[in-house]
Amino acid sequence: MDDLKSKYLGQIAEAGDENALEAIRVAAVGKKGEVALKMRELGKMTPEERQVAGPALNALKDEINSALSAKKSALADAALDERLRTEWLDVTLPTRARRQGSIHPISQATEELTAIFAELGFSVAEGPRIEDDWYNFDALNIPGHHPARAEMDTFYMHRAEGDNRPPHVLRTHTSPVQIRSMEKQGAPIRVICPGGVYRADYDQTHTPMFHQVEGLAIDKDISMANLKWVLEEFVKAFFEVDDVELRFRASHFPFTEPSAEVDIRCSWDNGQLKIGEGDDWMEILGSGMVHPKVIAAGGIDPEVYQGFAFGIGIDRLAMLKYGIPDLRAFFDSDLRWLRHYGFAALDMPNLHGGLSR
Ligand code: 2U9
């Protein structure tokens, strides 16, 4: 019995992990373990022998069990100590600097111009970027054969073979939104439609996706004088100047008659643009009185109602306002471009008092 005791207590002392310990438990005090086998031999003993051997075996079993549980908690303690030694955090380390985002200049320009037109009484409407060709062209007095369809470098959506429905297109202007607004609201109406538009055109001054804001005001006695006043108020507020002079040049668009391109007085000093003063003129938008056919396409009676419309490229407005000379800045994911062009929001101090990089 002493042999058993020293054998198992020795093995327990040597055990390196819980699995080893469990194997020892099964071999020593398990149902078919050595101690159990010895217990079975008690029946063959004389009562005197049994009186000695019985309690001794029980004591041995107890001793092995308590050695097992002592060793088990010693192993757990050692494992915890090991984790505490290896898994530690230096809570005094500084955090990693995070890149700070900022609003995109086109979004910022859109927000600013929307606020200005809202003050002038215009509501804001949005619509789908995939349009059918009726909303994008026909309703705007651009029929199928019209050269403007070709000039607009339209992206056509794929149609399955045999599908002869009229094509869907990526809208080439936000004008369809104004048609939809007229249909929904009727007259009188004052609405602006900002948003992305698409034309298959790519060079130094054109990108296949760009942004427009178009405006529409329809009532019984709206004239080009109202158009001129609205545009003057807009230009002064957007470019933050007290006064501005606009020049209307006769032009042609299918959806307006008469049509005018609008220039603003400006000067370029050493590449620095000043708006409202100087001897130069810069074209900033197109406009006109809405063609009666277009008013009718919007479900409004052109015998009773008339109105003006205008279209402005937001990307260019943003470039002029924030001094961004290169369209690439809008599409380049490298934020250094934007910071270079003075997008101060990128340099906001972070929590550590430094500048985000
Ligand atoms: C409706 C009726 C008329 C919107 C107009 C222009 C003139 C125009 C250009 C400006 C720069 C497009 O982004 S750009 O290249 N737009 O010159 N847009 S009148 O006329 C409308 C719109 C909707 C129902």
TrEMBL record:
One GO CC annotation: cytoplasm
InterPro entries given in the database record: aa-tRNA-synth_II, aa-tRNA-synth_II/BPL/LPL, Phe-tRNA-synth_IIc_asu, Phe-tRNA_ligase_II_N, Phe_tRNA_ligase_alpha1_bac, Phenylalanyl-tRNA_Synthase, tRNA-bd_arm
Subcellular location per the Swiss-Prot or TrEMBL entry: Cytoplasm
GO molecular function, one term: tRNA binding
EC number of the protein: 6.1.1.20
Catalytic activity: tRNA(Phe) + L-phenylalanine + ATP = L-phenylalanyl-tRNA(Phe) + AMP + diphosphate + H(+)
Domain Aminoacyl-transfer RNA synthetases class-II family profile: start-end pairs: 116-349
Any one GO biological process: phenylalanyl-tRNA aminoacylation
Keyword terms, alphabetized: Aminoacyl-tRNA synthetase, ATP-binding, Cytoplasm, Ligase, Magnesium, Metal-binding, Nucleotide-binding, Protein biosynthesis
Cofactor binding remark: Binds 2 magnesium ions per tetramer.
Pfam families: Phe_tRNA-synt_N (PF02912), tRNA-synt_2d (PF01409)
Cofactor: Mg(2+)
Superkingdom of origin organism: Bacteria
Database matches in PROSITE patterns: AA_TRNA_LIGASE_II
Residues engaged in binding Mg(2+): 257
Similarity comment: Belongs to the class-II aminoacyl-tRNA synthetase family. Phe-tRNA synthetase alpha subunit type 1 subfamily.
PANTHER family: PHENYLALANINE--TRNA LIGASE, MITOCHONDRIAL (PTHR11538:SF41), PHENYLALANYL-TRNA SYNTHETASE (PTHR11538)
HAMAP family: Phe_tRNA_synth_alpha1 (MF_00281)
Subunit structure: Tetramer of two alpha and two beta subunits.
Protein name listed in UniProt: Phenylalanine--tRNA ligase alpha subunit
